[in-house]
Write a structure and sequence with these properties.
The complex is a heterodimer.
Chain A (H helix, E strand, L loop, with lengths): L1 H11 L5 H23 L1 H13 L5 H29 L5 H28 L25 E3 L6 E3 H19 L9 H24 L4 H5 L7 H19 L15 H21 L6 H29 L4 H15 L8 H26 L7 H19 L14 H33 L6 H6 L1 H6 L7
Antiparallel strand pairs in A: 1-2
Helix pairs in contact in A: 4-5, 4-6, 4-10, 5-6, 5-7, 6-7, 6-9, 7-9, 7-15, 9-14, 9-15, 10-11, 10-12, 11-12, 11-13, 12-13, 12-14, 13-14, 14-15
Chain B lengths: L1 E7 L4 H10 L6 E7 L6 E5 L2 E5 L2 E10 L4 H12 L8 E6 L17
Antiparallel strand pairs in B: 1-5, 1-6, 2-5, 3-4
Classes of the chains: A mainly alpha, B alpha+beta.
Chain lengths: 468, 112
């Protein structure tokens, strides 16, 4: 460890200039006695190394990076997703969307520390292939001193950091679903659905994909930052919700143009910035892997924005702001499972495909099936997520610039990725369908026709977004 | 007395106001309106959803003028509001029965 560090520092100082050269010599001068001392004390060093292996101490850099990443993902949700979605609804429903996302973030935060974390990342014994256990209910035994493993042997981060980081993932996944049935869902029904769906869909999928012993984890499905867990999972739930609840009154006949696209642009920008925490933070360490994920999160997003923009320009005649922003989100979704696994060139190709295909998904595909997924959660998050999941299996190939995985074969990996997609689609689809039907029967999913026409801001929340 | 109502392109408002001031028109009332005529609307596209916007924004301008100045008023509006392209608008003229200045109680042409 020590030798590795000094190598790095010499490399870093190896730029031209007398000052650096002098420093280098000085370092070597001081290093010499240390090395001699090190040789004589090698027995002690070995003992110390053993002790370090037994109880590794979190690196301050890693910890700082993970704390920052957690904050960035919070930035994605509360202002980012809220404004992105809020700008796309009609003015009379602006506050309803903002309230829904804010409330979901608050709700899932609490549920996560009460029972979510332990069920997602605990060891479920006989049921470990699908879910964890309740050993850390109420975060029992999790202290500032407890640690969580990272991808590197012997490198850990504080467990509380990991708990908080993962909390934000659970929260954004549930919040994303709101876009599928925006402008017509009953607020109380949404809260009940959020709590139940978090419990029965998010937690098992997160466990299956990310926890050791989880079904898809053991199968070798690659999902760097949550393409299946977050995006396909939420996208399918939103589609099922849109279908079960039904179309908005006047859908396809009345104009339902976004009421404030500048807000959508601000939201998309906050999502992009926050996504660096989401993707590069998923590396769990402040290393080159995080840098790769960060760079991919820039270039895949850029290429997807271009892909959507040019496709729309060619196909529909004009490059729209909403199109560029939507393309960027499609790219972010697609690069999520791939972020730390593919090379930047692979990320660019992945982004281009996602941008163009998601445009088709929100227009051609949506029109031919006629469902009213208000803010295109399915078209962007599920479709983009599937492109990303399958694409990760292809572009992880070292031959295509990816980082590679052991025993890699492209066909095999793509099949594994497809299994991950299918399991998520089936699981989320079934759980969502049952929950929506149950809640509809119990308390009703939808607001009254009168309330829907009036707008949810005044009808449900008793306030108005804009009082000029 | 005549009531002149003109529908014009919004960006022409300043020119029309100047032209009317020059020939001595004392006051006009302006409203932002929407409407359709021969000028076609446009389509807006939000992701997959296409909306045809038929009603275009226009300015409605109202001026009450003495009958003997009507021709000059009409000429001033026509000249200043014209671009030669479709959508320049229309002018409607009608007889005006009575005008009262609220502050002084003057009525008829004295109130114009």
């Amino acid at each position: 460890m020590k030798t590795k560090r000094s190598e790095v520092s010499v490399k870093a100082n190896a730029s031209p200039g007398w000052c650096y050269a002098a420093t280098k010599k000085l370092i070597m001068l001081f290093a010499l006695p240390a090395v001699l001392y090190g040789l004589s004390a090698s027995a002690f060093a070995e003992e110390a190394a053993m002790a370090t292996l037994a109880a590794p101490i979190p690196d301050k850099g890693d910890t700082a990076w993970m704390l920052l990443s957690t904050l960035l993902v919070v930035l994605m949700i509360v202002p980012g997703l809220s404004l992105f979605y809020g700008g796309m609804v009609r003015a009379k429903n602006m506050l309803s969307v903002l309230s829904q996302i804010f409330a979901i973030f608050a709700l899932v935060s609490v549920l996560w520390v009460v029972y979510g974390y332990t069920l997602a990342f605990g060891d479920g014994g006989g049921l470990n292939w699908v879910i964890g256990d309740l050993s850390k209910l109420f975060l029992a035994g999790v202290t500032p001193d407890s640690t969580s493993a990272t991808f590197s042997e012997g490198v850990v981060i504080p467990e509380l950091t990991f708990v908080a980081f993962q909390l934000t993932f659970a929260a954004i996944t549930v919040a994303l679903i709101v876009g599928g049935f925006a402008e017509r869902i009953k607020f109380s029904a949404l809260l009940v659905f959020s709590a139940l769906w978090f419990t029965f869909s998010y937690l098992p999928i997160a466990h299956m994909v990310w926890a050791s012993g989880g079904y898809l984890f053991e199968k070798g499905a690659l999902d760097f930052a949550g393409g299946t867990v977050v995006h396909i999972n939420a996208g399918i739930a939103a589609l099922v919700g849109a279908i079960v609840i039904g179309k908005r009154i006047g859908y396809g006949r009345e104009a339902m143009a976004p009421h404030n696209l500048p807000m959508t642009m601000i939201g998309a920008s906050l999502l992009w910035v926050g996504w660096f925490g989401f993707n590069a933070g998923s590396n769990l360490e402040a290393t080159g892997g995080a840098a790769l994920a960060l760079l991919n999160t820039i270039v895949a997003t850029g290429s997807a924005a271009l892909g959507w923009m040019f496709a729309e320009w060619l196909w529909r005649g004009k490059p729209s702001m909403l199109g560029i922003a939507s393309g960027a989100i499609a790219g972010l979704v697609a690069v999520t499972p791939a972020a730390g696994l593919v090379g930047p060139m692979g990320a660019i190709v992945l982004g281009l495909i996602a941008g163009a295909v998601c445009l088709w998904a929100v227009s051609g595909l949506k029109k031919s099936f006629g469902y009213d997924d208000s803010l295109d959660v399915f078209g962007i998050h599920a479709v983009g997520g599937i492109i990303g999941a399958i694409g990760t299996g292809i572009f992880v190939s070292p031959a295509l610039g990816g980082v590679g995985v052991s025993d890699y074969s492209m066909v095999g990996q793509v099949m594994t990725q497809a299994t991950g997609v299918l399991v998520t689609v089936a699981w989320s689809g079934a759980v969502s369908f049952v929950l929506f039907k149950l809640i509809d029967a119990a308390i009703g999913l939808r607001v009254t026709e009168e309330a829907e026409r009036e707008g949810l801001d005044t009808a449900t929340h008793g306030e108005r977004a804009y009082n000029f | 007395m005549k009531m002149v109502v003109a529908i014009i392109k919004p960006f022409k408002l300043d020119e029309v106001r100047e032209a009317l001031s020059e020939i001595g028109v004392q006051g006009i009332t302006v409203t932002e309106v929407k409407g359709f005529g021969r000028q076609k609307g446009h389509t807006e596209l939000y992701r997959g959803a296409e909306y045809v916007v038929d009603f275009l924004p226009k300015i409605k301008l109202e001026a009450a003028v003495p009958a003997d100045t009507l021709d000059r008023v009409l000429e001033a509006i026509e000249k200043s509001a014209r671009t030669g392209k479709i959508g320049d608008g229309k002018i409607f003229v009608s007889d005006l029965e009575q005008v009262i200045r609220i502050r002084t109680g003057e009525s008829g042409s004295e109130a114009l």
